[in-house]
Every structure is written in structure tokens, then in C-alpha cells.
């Protein structure tokens, strides 16, 4: 069949190069380009790509867009009815622009398991999560349609020579691995092990079936004042169960207990009473905290005003939140809120 792609990430980015440029040449696919990031929701249905690649933020926004038009209880009721459920699903997928998509991939950052479960349960969509980086030509690990395990980033690619170091850092050695950083011999030396493996900077584990799970970034892991380490990614992923949240970042360096900074989905603050929002956020925080060790527990949720975007420098071009930028920009707010005992606060 005809293959149609939709390109909306920067083509300077390795993933877009491999997944869209490389694969479109290989498959002879038609490629459509996005005019502006704000127009994604409007243009995607017009293109209806056969493969769709997204970052977690995009899937979170799809989900909240659907739930804005059809509340969760109604969605569950309608999609549970035979025949009618199929019609409703088709209509939703057409509205999103995923009606022709045979393969739907997510990468660049961890996709929360509740989001994947929601797509699978209500829209019958299996999102395939993969993993890779520029330095290994994004040839690393991936889930495939016939072998997909939620929460994992799939199995290592053939001959990628994947292994874990003693410190559980993910390592690779294959012909697609870079020779080094341009004119940066020190940085290059740091990035390789003595036996020539690329150090990804990601910590991981492998289950009995060979699926790889990323447990956090080596350098994102921070120490609170209690002197214990906290890995923020799994905690952020767990709180992302609240679909009113757009983005989130757990901070805790120099604090006795971590705080979670969040931005809300567009329109949520206007359409939902603050009291209800607070109640739901705090309830979700409590659920997450029950699964954590004492030093990891979220002390408080701080809702910030400004959306985090590429334009204001808080997100990378692949829509990942820059943790160090958040810590810098919100330093005064973090200090202020860490001193006040309450489970939720709003940036004034």
C-alpha cells in the first residue's frame, strides 16, 4: 500500500532523519510537512499518515483533546458497546488524524504507562515505544507490532551489541555508533568505555524476556538534602496519570523533599473549578506517593503559569523538558514553596 508520512519535528534531528527521511526513501513514501507546531491538530487529520511518530507530549495532548470533547465516563460507555463502539472509535481516530496509521511510535522521552493503556483500551491503538540517540544513529532498541511490552523500550536491535555496565548504564557498540564529538577529544573520551562501548547516559534493566526498561538518566538523578538519590523520570511518569497535566518536572536538589512542578493542559484552568482540579491533583499525588520510598515522595505540587515550550527555551526541539533550565528559572519559586507546608500551590 501507499505510505504517507507527516513530518513535524525538526529535520536536523536524528530521529526525524532516520524515521522520516531515511524510511521515506526506502519505502517510497509521500511526506507532508507541518507549517507550524500550533497547527498539528488541524493538519494531521488532512494528511492521515500511514505511520505516525510522536513524542510523549503529543500523545498526552491527543488524549486531553479527546477527553475535552467526550468525558471519560461517556467514552468508556460508548466504546464498550459492540458495533457502536467501533463507529465511535473510527470517528475519534479520524478527528485525530490516526485513522490510516498502521504503526504508531513514541520516542525521545518515557511515555507514561497510563497513557499507553488508555490508547490501547479505548482506541485499540498500540503505541510502540522505542529508544535511540544521535550518537548511535538511533539504532538501539524498539518495540514491534508483534512484540510490544508496555513500559519497556523493546528489545535491542540485531547486532547492536547492547549491554549494561556494572553501574547499570546502557552501552552500545556497532558500526552506526559515532566516531566522536567534533573537535572535543575530552568529551569523546568520557563518552566511551575503555573497551570502546558508547555510554548512553541512561540507566536501564532487562527483564527475563529480553525487553529493556530505562530507569532514568545517569545525570538527572539528584540527591535531596537527606543524602539519598531520587530518579525523577518514573515518578513523573506515574503522576502523568492525571490527564489535566500537560508537562511535569520533579525537582529536589538542595531540598529536604522533592517538589513537582506542573503545567496544565490548555484550557483546563478556565473550564474546571480550581477546587476540583486541586482535589484531583492531590489525590493522584497520594496514589503515586504510596508506591515510593519516603525520601522520594512528592512533598507538593506547584502549578506554574507559563506553558513550557521550545520558543521560551524550556523544551528541547524534540519537546523534552530541560531540567536544569527549570531549576534555574524557577529557583525563587522552588525555594519559596519548599518552605511552605501544603500539598498544592499555584504560581502567583
What would you note in describing this structure?
With 348 residues, the chain is an alpha/beta fold. It has a five-stranded mixed beta sheet with strand order 3-4-5-6-7. It has twelve helices and 17 strands.
Compile the SSE list and pairings.
Layout: E1 4-7, H1 14-27, E2 30-33, H2 40-47, E3 51-54, H3 56-69, H4 72-79, H5 84-96, E4 103-106, H6 113-123, E5 127-131, E6 141-142, E7 155-156, E8 163-164, E9 169-172, H7 185-191, E10 198-206, E11 212-217, E12 222-223, E13 229-230, H8 232-239, E14 245-251, E15 259-264, H9 268-271, H10 274-289, E16 300-303, H11 323-329, H12 331-338, E17 344-346
Parallel strand pairs: 1-2, 3-4, 4-5, 15-16, 16-17
Antiparallel strand pairs: 5-6, 6-7, 8-9, 9-10, 10-11, 12-13, 14-15
Descriptive keywords:
348 residues, alpha/beta, five-stranded mixed sheet, four-stranded antiparallel sheet, 34% helix
Q: How many beta strands in the DSSP annotation? A: 17
Give the assembly state of these chains. single chain
Main sheet, how many strands, which sense, barrel?
5 strands, mixed
Biggest sheet, strands in spatial order?
3-4-5-6-7
Uncertain regions: pLDDT < 50 for 5+ in a row?
none
Can you tell me the overall shape? globular
List the secondary-structure elements in sequence, H or E: EHEHEHHHEHEEEEEHEEEEHEEHHEHHE
* Average pLDDT number: 95
In short:
The chain is of the alpha/beta class and 348 residues long.
